[in-house]
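User: My instructor asked us to take a sequence, write out its structure as C-alpha cells, and then describe one feature of it. I'm not sure where to start. Here is the sequence I was given:
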Amino acid sequence: MRRLGYTEDVPTSTIVILDFGSQYTQLIARRIREFNVFSVVLPCTVGLDQVRALAPAGIILSGGPSSVYDADAPAADTEVLELNIPVLGICYGLQFMVHHLGGTVESAARREYGHAQVEIVRETKLFRGLEGELDVWMSHGDEAKILPEGFVLTAQTPNALAGIANEERRMWAVQFHPEVAHTRQGTELLKNFALDICAAEPNWTPEHFIQATIERVRAQVGETGHAICGLSGGVDSSVAAVLVARAIGNRLTCIFVNNGVLRKNEFAKVQRTMRESLGLTVVAVDAGERFLAKLSGITDPEQKRKVIGNEFIAVFDDEARAIFEAEKSAGEEIAWLVQGTLYPDVIESSSVHGPSHTIKSHHNVGGLPADMKLKLIEPLRDLFKDEVRRIGRDLGMPAEIIERQPFPGPGLAVRILGEVTAERVAMLQEADAIVVEEIKAAGLYSRVWQSFAVLLPVKSVGVMGDQRTYANACAIRAVESEDGMTADWAALPEAVLRRISSRIVGEVRGINRVVYDITSKPPGTIEWE
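Assistant: Let's start with the prediction itself. The C-alpha cells for your sequence are:
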C-alpha cells in the first residue's frame, strides 16, 4: 500500500535527523520546526544517497539506548561525517562521533540521569549567547574518554565531559539532551545550530505546508479519483479530511464509526460538527453493540487495542465496499484512503525511523487489509499535535475542533481498567463528562493537554446517606504537555478537584471514591492503558 506523506516536497533548507533509537528523537524535529526550519527524521541506517538527495543544511545525530561498542550497536554510514555539512551529535550521537573518528568511549563509572549542571569551558558557535552554567537533562551510562584528533572539550559536569567540538570540521556534540524541556536553554542551543551554524532558511510555515499538501493531493488523486477517510471527530482526522477536501472537494467521503466506547453524546455531536461546520460528506455507522460483544471478557490492554483495531477495520471495510459498489455503479472508483496519523503515533507503535523502543500499538498505524487495494494518504504523518492545530487554525476550522483534547483511538476502552461492558462504559461516560465540564468551566481546557476520568478495577467501602456502600473507584488524570511525547501532571486548583470529586460521587451511580493521578510521562504514560 503506497503512503502519501508530505516529506516528498522538501523545502530548500532542511535539517536531517538520524535516529539512533532515542524516544526523544521526534522532539528534536519539533524543536527545529519551531524556528520555521523544515526537519525530517530518517533511520540511522539510511543510505548516504538518500541523505544527499535532501541536500541538508545540517545533520543531527540523535541519542539512543545502546552503547557504541556493542556488537549490534546502531550505526550510520560514517560518510555522513565527511560531507562537509554541519553535524551536531546528541548523547549517543556524541559517542558515535567520538568512536568512529578515532576516540574512545567507555562505560562510565557513574551513570548520569536526570538534572545536571553543565559548565561551559570553551566558547563555541553552539553555545553563543548562553550562560556559563547550564541546567540540563542527562541520560547516559557511557562517556567519551579520549577525544578524536582536532576535537576540544567545550563543556563538562563534575563527573564527565558534556560537550566537544571541532569547528574546523564543522562538528559539535553535547552529552545532554537540548531537545527536552528540562534543558532550559536547549532551544537556544538548537537555534544556534540550525540558524547560525547551518544558515538554514526559516521558510517552512503552515501556509507553505497547506498549499504544498493540497497541490500534491490534487495531483495524486487526479481529476476523477475518489477517496474515503476514517473520521474520528478528533483534530487529527478532521484536519486531514479538510485538507483533502480542499484538494478534491466532494470526491472525499468520510466514514465515522461508533465503536461503543465514545464519550457521552459524541456520536451525534461529531456528525453535526463534521457536516454543518466543516461541510464534509459523512457516512455514520452505529456499531457499538458489535464492538462491545467483541470486547466481552477481555482485560489485557494490548488485546483491547487489537480487538478494537481489527473490528474497526472490519466495519470500515464493510462500509467502504458499499461505497465502492455505489461509485462503480456511477462509473467512478475510489482508490485512496485518508488517515490522520501523526508522528507520535508512528514512533510509539513501531521502529519506523530507527531502533526506537515500541511503547504501545496505535490502531491507525498499519494493519489495514491488503485486499482493499487503496493507496494511502497520510498528510499529517510527520506532524506533531501542536503543528496540526496550527494547520487547522490556518484552514479556518472551528475552535471546538482545533482545541479538542487528544482522545485515544480505542476510546474509553483504555480508560476502563479490566473488562469493558455497556454498564461500565455508561458509568465512565458520565464521570468523564463531569471532568470535561468542570475543566472547561474553570477555563483550563485549552491550558492542559488532556484531562479525563479512568474507571479502576477496584471497589472500596464508602458512606452515603448514612449507609455503607461498596462501589467503584475513579481516577482523574490531567497533564500538561507540548506534544504528548513527554508530560507533567497538571496541578489543578484544589477547588476544581473538589467540585469534580463531589459531582462524580454524587451524580454517578456506582462510584464512591475519586483519586488524582500525579505521575509524569516518563515514567508513566498519559493513558493508563
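For the description part of your assignment, you could build on this observation: Residues 301-329 form the longest helix (29 residues). Try explaining in your own words what that tells you about the chain.
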